[in-house]
Amino acid sequence: MMDQYAIQIKTKINGKEEILIIEEREVKKVESILDLGLRHKEQIEILRKLQDEILKLQSVQLAEKIDRCPKCNGEMGKKGYNQSNFHSVFTDHKVKVQRQICKKCGWKSIPSVKSLLGTSSHPDLIKLQCEIGAEHSYRDAQDILNKKASVKRKINNHEQVHNVIEKVGEYISKASENEIIVGSSIAKEIIAQIDGGHIKDKDPNQRSFEAMTAIMYRPENIIKKGNKNIIVSKNCIASALLDDQEYIKKAALLAAKEQGLSKETTITALCDGAANCWSIAKSLQDHCGTFIGILDWFHVAMKFQNIALPKTQKIKLDKVKWCLWHGNVDKSVEKLDQLIAKIKNSSRLLKLHKLKTYIENNRNYIVNYDDRKRHDMAFTSHMAESTVESLINQRCKGQQHMRWTRLGVHKLLQIRAYIASNNWVTGWLDKIMGAFSNPFPVTI
After folding, report:
1. Any idea what the Cα angle at residue 38 is, between residues 32 and 39, rounded to 5°?
2. Chain centroid, CA 88 distance in Å
3. 175 to 30, 100, 148, 152, 169: CA distances (angstroms)
4. Residues 199, 277: contact at Cβ < 8 Å?
5. Cα distances (Å, whole numbers) of residue 61 to 6, 51, 97
6. Helix (H) or strand (E) holding 208
7. Band of the pLDDT at 180, cuts 50, 70, 90?
8. Which of 439, 438, 394, 434 shows the shortest CA–CA distance to 170?
9. Lowest mean pLDDT among 56-60, 115-119, 385-389
10. In angstroms, what CA-CA distances link 143 with 151, 210, 345, 408?
11. Count of CB atoms within 10 A of residue 145's CB?
């Protein structure tokens, strides 16, 4: 005779204890690894049954207490129950919610889990949808969520995941504008990496638009992990709004304050050389003690790498780069002019002239990179992670068919930035509860 086990719930209602049997099963004979423990679907099914029994006990608490009819002020009475949807992390349920009716005019109150509590989805499910939807395309997120639940669920439909991302992303965006910063210890220095990335526009008449990103961190928070540099504490921000940089500048200031910005702090801003990046960086000048703007060496090096020249001319171009590496702008421009004078190819000439314009436009931000490297001071974003790559490219440009609206991608980027900032671990519940706030208090 096989051993048996029972899954049960012990309840105590009005002082009376009762045992509810959820399921009884025989213990399987182990003939293969498949027989050891419970299969995926079996585990989900047990969760569903457990939830159903708990929800039955809790359903008596789900009711609006309306004493008088809002239509005629008549007396209200009970009128049966409404079967309302509730979506847990892996299972879907129907929950009884008390209905009421006016004894005088017949007006009915038909509440639901959503009307009483703000949403019919548990915050843990919304959290999972946010995390997976922020990392993968919405259709891929739908498939991943359904695989976790071992069944196809309407609540995990790609449109539903999209809606959740937009709602939570919008809340994070608005909440950050009014956020009160609980001061971190004063930072001696904060590194501000600012960059932009282009995203395909959903409008077929438009090619693309630019989203801006930034990351704020203290230099001491960079640690070596294997072959990579990891930032253990950082604040990431992003914006795709066409608002004259109003949002991104406010977010940059908040992010810097969270890292410990004060009038004693040195801000070292690493930018790719674009005017919009410098504009964001300079918005922090009035809030710090010292501001140092540095043309990001990673982007400087990329400018040189993208110019293909014959060997002898390449040697001359390398000398231009060497002069820049040592902070000698005038010497680099002089050598670049000498090289340009010897080039006949129009395509190469165009690239060299663009390089010269780039150097001239950013001469005030070109430093002695060699000296900064020797003294272990920030001079390039390549030493840490790229915000454009981690926040924009990995999600928004991974598939060529992806096209976005500014507002849609802005909301998605708020979640990605919040997760990348390491704030998600402790702050996700507040953000989700805020986005799906309870419109009507439950009266028990």
Report:
1. 80
2. 23
3. 54, 36, 31, 34, 10
4. no
5. 28, 16, 8
6. strand 208-217
7. low
8. 434
9. 385-389
10. 10, 30, 52, 21
11. 25
Nearest CA among 305, 308, 335 for reference residue 319: 335
Look at phi and psi of residue 308 and say left if phi exceeds 0, alpha if psi is from -120 to 50, else beta.
Answer: beta
Kindly report, residue by residue over 359-376, the tens digit of the pLDDT. Answer: 999 999 999 999 999 999
Residue 360's CB: how many other CB atoms inside 10 A? 11
Q: Are 236 and 256 within 8 A, CB to CB?
A: no
Tens of pLDDT, residue by residue over 106-143, are: 999 999 999 999 999 999 999 999 999 999 999 999 99
| pLDDT confidence of residue 65 | 84
Rounded CA-CA distance 291/60 in Å is 61
- What the block records as the tokens of 29 is 């004979």
**Eight-state DSSP code of residue 384:** S
Rounded (5°) CA angle 104-110-114: 155
User: Rounded to two decimals, what is the model's pTM?
Assistant: 0.88
Judged by phi (left if over 0) then psi (alpha if -120 to 50, else beta), residue 295 lies in beta
In 52-119, the DSSP E strands lie at 76-87, 92-102, 108-109
State the Cα–Cα distance between residues 387 and 368, nearest whole angstrom.
Answer: 24
Is residue 139 classed as helix, strand or coil in its secondary structure? helix
